[in-house]
Write a structure and sequence with these properties.
Elements: H1 2-28, H2 36-57, H3 64-78, H4 80-93, H5 97-124
């Protein structure tokens, strides 16, 4: 278990640093107030996790530590949006449209509400 935590932690560290650098670079390269840096990171993260899981399924990358480093660690540190999209894709792939709709809707709706509640609580203090 400790070895798995090490690989996840190292992947998260590298993913988080990479997210910060790419997001800042992209955002500083535009004059738009749209969060283009975050958007680019989220899209790249979805692309990366799709590639990684594709490589693992086809047997091109079989090492479990590498899988933990790249998917849970790097992609998780780079953006949790990639994991969210992968989970939605698995529902779609399994043709489980009910869970797909519930998970996506609740994640967005409840996530936004919880952000507002957390923000509101701090503003009241």
């Amino acid at each position: 278990m400790l070895k798995a935590l090490f690989f996840v932690g190292m992947g998260s560290l590298s993913g988080g640093i990479t997210r910060f650098l790419i997001s800042k670079f992209v955002q500083s390269s535009t004059v738009l107030s749209f969060p283009l840096g975050t958007f680019v990171v989220n899209v790249l993260g979805c692309f990366a996790i799709g590639m990684f899981y594709g490589l693992f399924e086809t047997g091109h990358l079989m090492n479990n530590n590498l899988r933990l480093f790249l998917t849970v660690g790097f992609c998780g540190g780079f953006t949790t949006f990639s994991t969210f999209m992968n989970e939605n894709y698995l529902f779609l792939k399994d043709q489980n449209f009910f869970y797909l709709a519930i998970y996506t809707s609740l994640s967005l709706f409840v996530g936004l509400i919880m952000l507002y509640v957390g923000y509101s609580i701090i503003k009241l203090l």
